[in-house]
What we know:
mainly alpha; 3 helices
Amino acid sequence: MDSCDGRARAYKNGKTFDQCKEIAESMNPDFKNQISKNSKILWTEILEKVDHDELIYKLTLKFLRRDGYDIGNHKTPEVKPFIS
């Protein structure tokens, strides 16, 4: 019985998961610059810049959290640096 390889699944615009990860990583420096200039970036701004691609949006937030940013929650939908 043939089955599809889950790792090769195509997401929006036919991209693989690994390609989406690379795109999210490549966009993060721009988001970090905007955070350093404005002290925050709204989730809606990130969503617009990733062209409403939900997977890249979620990966972007994940990578920003990994890099030490407070990604907020449903009450404060913004990303800002952690205050020590």
